[in-house]
Structure formats: C-alpha cells, structure tokens
Amino acid sequence: MEPAVDVMQKDEPNTLRFVALSSADNARISENGSALVDYLLHPPKGTERELGEGIAPEITQKRRDALRALTEAAFK
Amino acid sequence: MIMNATIAEYSDLLEALLPAYDKLSLFPPSAAGGGEGIIRSDVFLQGDALPEDEVAIVAVIDHVVPFAHHLLTAADGHSRVASIWLQDGVADLSPRPDIAFGLELRGSEIDLLRQGGNGHPRSEEEIYRAIGLMEPGRRDARWMMRASSHGAAVACTAAGFLPDDRAGRAHPLIAVGLPDWALADTSGAVMPLLLQASVVFIISRARMLAAEINADRAQRGKPPVRPPIVVNISLGITAGPRDGTSLIERMHDVISAQPPSDLGQVHFVLASGNTRQRRQNAVLKAGADAPGEIGWNLPPDDRTISELQIWAPVLPAGAPAIRLRLTLPGAASAPARSIETAFDDPVGAGAQIAMILDDQERELARLVLQAFARGDRLRQCLTMIVPPTASDKPGPVLSPPGTWQIELLPGGPSPCDVVVQRDDRLFGFPRAGRQSWLVDPTYVERDAHGHWQAADPADPSAIRRNGTANAYAWGERQLRVGAHYRIGPWHADDGPTRRLSSYAGLLANGDCGDLTAAGDRCVALPGVPAPGLRGRATQIVSGTSIAAPRITRWLAARMAGSTPPMTRSQIVTAAKNGPGNPAGVPFVDIPMPWDR
C-alpha cells in the first residue's frame, strides 16, 4: 500500500495545459451571450449540475410563446 | 428586440431549471392547498383601492412579496395590489395565455380569496394556504411560513400604507415574486431573463390598469391620466460590463426614454449594492511600473462555481487578445502549476472557449474570451470560471482552494478591470456559495482613524472601491441608491459624507449612488425597521436593499404630484433641495407608517 501522502500528491493538479475548443464549440456563445450560461449548460465532465430532466418541446414552445405574448402586450 | 434577445440567450437555461417544480403544477391549488383555488377575474382594483385623482404606480420585483398584507390593503378591505406574478406559484389550471410559468393574481382575485372564508374573511395565512403558497411538505412553499422576507420589507416600504391612509390610494402596487432558486444562485445566471420578463409584465399590467383607471375616471366625469411608474429592484450582482450595455440596463433605459403612450414617465430604482469593502474590483496594468498581478482567493467549502471577469478598454478590431498568466495555489512548491493564455486576437464580435486541464485531464478552469461590439470597435472580456472547492458528493472535479495568482501580461490590452462575480448566500437560504475575493498586499482597508475607506485616493492600489455599484445599474437613466445612517453626527470637519454608509457600492466617480436613503439607524445599530410577512410583525433590514424602496416611496409621491421629476438629474436636484438636507447632498429621509 502506498503511503497516504503519495495518494494526496497524485490527486493534486500538476502540469497544466491550455486547450482551446473548436470553432463549433465557440459558436455556442452568441454575440451578446453569457459565458456563465454556457458553462452551466455545458459543464465540465464530472461537475454536471442537477438540471432538469428535459421537458417536452411543445411546453417549451408554449412558454416562449407566452413570453412573446407578454412582450407584445407591453409594447404594442 | 431587447426582450427577444434575452429570451434567445437565456431560455435554454431557464428550461433546464424550470421542470423540477413545473411538474408540481399538475396539481391544482385546490388539491395542493386544501382550498377551493382561484376564482378568475380580470379586474385589477375595486372600491377604495382605485385611485382618486393623483396616481403613480409602484412596482416591485423581489422574493416572497406578501400580497395579502394589511399595509397593501385599502380602507374597505380591497387589495391595493393590482397584480402580482408569482413566478414559482402553483400554476392555475387555466393560466392566462401570457403567463409563461407560475401564477398571476389580480387585485379582484385577491379580494375573492379574502372573502372566501366560511362566514368570515380569510386571514393572510389562510389566503396563502388556499393557493398552495404555505405547504410544509413542499420545499418551494415554505417561505410564507416564516416571519419575514426580503420582499415583505421591500414591497411594504415602497408601497405600504395603513389602510385608512388615503395617500395609499394614489399608489397601486404591481409586484413580481421571483423563484427561490433564482435568488439562491446569487451569481444571477438566469436572472436577466426573469428580470426582463418581470419588467415586461409590469409594463403590460400597468397599461391595462391605466385603462381601468381611466374608465373609472370617465364614469366620474374626469379627464384621463397617464400613470407614471416607479419600479424598485433591490437585487444585484457585482460583475458585468458596467458600461450600461447589458440587456437589463438597455431595457430600463429604453423604457425610461420612451415609455408607452398611455403611461407617464417610468423610473427604475436600483440598490447600489453593499460590496464596497469586499475586494471584488481591481484594475491591472501590464508592465513593471504598475500593479499587473493580483491574487484571487477561493475559500474552501464553496459548493458553487466562482467567476471572475477581466474587461479591456474599447479597442479597434484586431487589437491583441487579453493575455494572462495563471498560477494555482501552492505554486511555490510546484512551479509547473502556472500557465499562460493563448487566445487569437479577436477581429470581430464572438467568443473563444478554452479549458485549463491538469495532467489527469481534469478541467480546473474554463476561460472564455468574448469580444463585444461597441460601434465599429470591440471590447474584450475574459471570463474565468472555476468549479466549487467542496462537494457533498464524491467524484466531481474540485477547484483547489487558496490564492490563485492572476498576472496581466504585456502585449495585450492594458489597463484592464478585474471584477469578481457575486457568489455568497442570502439570509435564509441553504448554505451553498462562499464569496471569493481579490488579494493585494498593498491594499489598506481602513484609514488612520480606523474608519472604512470611502472613495479611491488619487493614487490607488490595484483593488478599487470606485465602481463597486450593482452591475445591473450602470444605465444612463436608472437611479442608483446608496445608503446612509439615519442618525449620526455630521462631522463638520469632514463634511456630511461621514454619515454615508461604509458598505454601499460606489459609482465610477466615487459617489455613493445618485442619492441615498437610510439603510441603518446609526453606526452601532445596523438596519432599519420594516414590516414582516404577516400581521404587525416587524423585521430589521440593512443595506441598500432597504434604502432603495424608501427612495421609491419618496419618488412615487412626487410622481403623483403636479410637477413630477422626469430625469435622473431632476430627481437628484429634488433630493438635494429636500428639507433638512445639507447643501449639495442628495439625502432623502421620509417618515414611515411604522415610525414611532
């Protein structure tokens, strides 16, 4: 068995690398987009948040339609 | 356009967060709350709640707003809350088609709920139970069981009047109750969409209310009015462009500049924030003769991600990308824990995403270089996001706690603003985030007399206090509210600024907001009294969150008068000319119904 201190040292980050993502990944963020929103929607492996399980597209569309109806009512 | 851009940008994240509680809306209020649910009515205000001659609508966007509170009720028992959107309320079986989630209640519906008891009016608590807002078995329906809430203090301070006070008739309230989960995440990831939707809701309902008020006036033979609105937002974050270009700031400015034709002037009142002394802001300059390096301290036991933004000046397209050297904690014993960024020079608006990986392929940080269009030029922002430093579950990658060194390298834009995003925990919410902060050994927190420092000196260190105002509040027309101590010596030698609070966020020029109101009783007694959630309960609330609704209340009274102030400068002038103010200081002190 290895000493505990060695186990801890192995777990510490050592050599670092700067890895640029592809232009397809970069396109996830729009011109006025939020880096934080992109991070939450595309979290690092192993740190996924407990987001929702997904919802039927028609409900999503219904909500977006409602927001647009509210906007129209406000600024018509 | 701005609202559509907000929907496009944030609705995916909203959809990812919504389903968890949306499933609960399968159960109607009658099943969830034990009551008979809501009887639909489209009328906003009835009886004594309808304005007589003067009117200025007050709007509040906050958390847990007690719409059945007696201070929000007219003398004849009708609700003065014209409409409230409970964004995490249990949805009705037949929701209004423009309510995307949650529940809207109009004044007449609140009246019907109040009258729905068995031979006696329902109490506030019975009303909340009847529509599923007080349910011990549901995690998202326990707030109303408490004695106090932020929304109770803010809404009642902004628009609360004793029922027999006729002044209250001039100020109907339109409110939005934000979801618990949106407040729990103080970095405000999805807040832009919720705030924008709230503002749109307020404008929409204010226009309908204006039509209802004018129909009532026509019956009484009075000419129509265009009601002005004062919108209170006692919420904020710390990081952002801070140049008035965020979607939130742009929407506020556009509405204030061109309110709908059937409304009067619309003013947005925002708290300036309480983070002046929290070391969230700095300026770095690349080169040997200026501070080009700063520490970023990530505390242990932080269960949420931390974010830091570095903003360059506005530069021509093709200017070099921001260049950083990042060094992880403990680098003295392991020099390899340092790395330099290598982004391409941005030639147009867009983003470049990169990861910092260790030798085990763990992503220790996400770096995003964005270039935002500013006319024909670009403003770069390099965002650094790191994972939590602690987790309740085994497995996830954690960030090493301690001080990360950030060095702005020559060859890129300089100077650059550094801003740490808010990541703390609001009172009453479960433990989650812990606020990170910047570390500069040369920074001095207090002056020679032991006082907290005010505005930056002429030759500041890297850490700054100027520019610590709420990052939602850098628009051209918004009103930023700082805080002062209600009681205290004026310190003639130092000037009246001694009475300003030590914590309120400062504008770029070092001012404590555009104007101030009481955020504390005195230096030794933090906070001011404000109503609690039910009955005659009182709570003590401190900071610019509670100063802002005092300004909202004061401003609404002026907006209902014959010569309402239309611009920020007119409002500041009115505050400076108020009774008892020292010359040139925009202090506002107003009596509250609960003052003794």
From TrEMBL, chain A:
Name by which UniProt lists this protein: Uncharacterized protein
Organism: Paracoccus laeviglucosivorans
UniProt lineage: Bacteria, Pseudomonadati, Pseudomonadota, Alphaproteobacteria, Rhodobacterales
From TrEMBL, chain B:
Name of the protein described by the UniProt record: Subtilase family protein
Signal peptide limits: none
TM stretches of this protein: none
Domain of life: Bacteria
InterPro entries reported in the protein's UniProt record: Peptidase_S8/S53_dom_sf (IPR036852)
BP terms from Gene Ontology: proteolysis
Molecular function per GO: serine-type endopeptidase activity
Organism of this sequence: Paracoccus laeviglucosivorans
Organism ancestry: Bacteria, Pseudomonadati, Pseudomonadota, Alphaproteobacteria, Rhodobacterales
